[in-house]
Amino acid sequence: MSHIVASSRPLRTVTFPKIAEYDQYLLPDQGWAPITFPPNDPVQESLKMLFRSSKTFFDLPLEEKDKYKTSFGSEEGWSKVEGEKEMITLRTIDNTPEQLKEAAERCWSLAGRYVNELLECVATSLDLPEEALCKFSTPCLSLDDVKRATMLRLFRYEVHEDKVVAEAHNDLGLLSLVMSDTPGLEVWDRSVQGWCDLERQCGKPIVMSGRQLQRLSNGHYGPGGHLVRSYGQSAWTETRNPLAIDGVSNPRYRYSIVFILRAHWPVPIDSDELSSEVTGKFTTPMKAITAKDLFFQIKKNHYNINANLEDRNEQRKNIDSLKKAQQERGEANEQPELQIEASG
Question: Could you tell me where the Basic and acidic residues compositional bias lies (predicted)?
Answer without folding.
Answer: 319-332
